Amino acid sequence: MSNLDYYIHDHSDALRFAIAGNLSGPGVASLDQAWRTASSVLRGRVLVIDLVSVRAADEYGRDLLVRWHRSGARISTRSAETRAFVEGVVGAPISMLAGKRAGGRGLIEFLLRCLRFAAGKPARATNNGKSVLAVEEINR
User: Class of 4-100 per CATH?
Assistant: First the structure.
């Protein structure tokens, strides 16, 4: 299972990437490609990078954080630890959001199951008690 999960939320005024895990390994290339593709259809909307839980990054992950910052994306975090990490990488203050409750669990669980099933990795969504939705593999 990947140590990086991201979700894209398309709103009328913003495009938001919610990211959890470490910005390292092959997931960074996938996230970078998703960002490049999404950027082509922003049409004046704000790009929001919501770092739900990111505490580590390899060279490519740190480079991606810097490129998001330089491109004008609004980067926010949900914890002081993530905020300190990202500020150290980009060299600028980052906003911190209050934690949000994971809502719409039924829909989210359904979508995650569809995605994981298509990838051959059945999974379910769970709330780990920290208001962060986690994805766990189901052993067959």
Answer: alpha beta
